[in-house]
Amino acid sequence: MMKEIAVVIAYENGVATVKCQSQGGCGSCAAKAACGTSMLSELTGERGEHILTINTISPLKIGQTVEIGLQEKSLLFSALLLYIVPLLTILTTAILGDYLFKQELFSAIFIFFCTALSFIIVRSYAQKVQKKSAFQPILLKIIS
């Protein structure tokens, strides 16, 4: 499980909004391999703040520091969806387009259309999967 320290920025009716902060040296320290923020930054390509919502039965206050966790398998599955599916779509449609069309322009349009369609399908599927509990961050402990 990936663990990260976060600060509560809002809490209402059992749902906490927390903020994880990427450090300036993120990705260059010795703990990079075990750091949740570093992994999240690499996956999203973003440095800075990550705002997440967490369901919790423990009442939290704004400004409290908490430890949150996310299963590695959910992160790996998300990366698989985001990178492998469109890549396989490009390769498959390139081969198929070569057989179906004599002109390269039609083949290129076909590849572009199918790849765009794969991104739309991945996004809609990811939105469905995102609601499952295995893909939600969880509150591990309240630090302060």
Overview of this protein structure:
This protein has 144 residues and is α+β, with helices and mostly antiparallel strands. The chain has helices spanning 36-44, 72-100, 104-130, and strands spanning 2-12, 15-21, 49-55, 65-70, 138-142. Strands 3-2-1-4-5 form a five-stranded antiparallel β-sheet. Strand 1 and strand 2 form a beta hairpin. Helix 2 (72-100) runs antiparallel to helix 3. It is elongated. 12% of the residues are buried.
Give the SSE map.
Elements: E1 2-12, E2 15-21, H1 36-44, E3 49-55, E4 65-70, H2 72-100, H3 104-130, E5 138-142
Antiparallel strand pairs: 1-2, 1-4, 2-3, 4-5
Helix pairs in contact: 2-3
Q: Count of DSSP E strands?
A: 5
**Poorly predicted spans:** none
Provide mean pLDDT, rounded. Answer: 82
Strand content: 25-35%
Structural class: alpha+beta
Q: What fraction, in percent, of the residue positions are helical?
A: 40-55%
Rounded Rg: 20 Å
User: In what order do the strands lie side by side in the largest sheet?
Assistant: 3-2-1-4-5
* Overall body shape: elongated
Query: Could you tell me how far the N terminus lies from the C terminus, measured between alpha carbons in angstroms?
Result: 21 Å
Query: Helix count, per DSSP?
Result: 3
Order of helices and strands: EEHEEHHE
The biggest beta sheet reads:
5 strands, antiparallel
Task: Provide a compact summary of the structure.
The protein has helices at residues 36-44, 72-100, 104-130; strands spanning 2-12, 15-21, 49-55, 65-70, 138-142. It has 144 residues and is an alpha+beta fold.
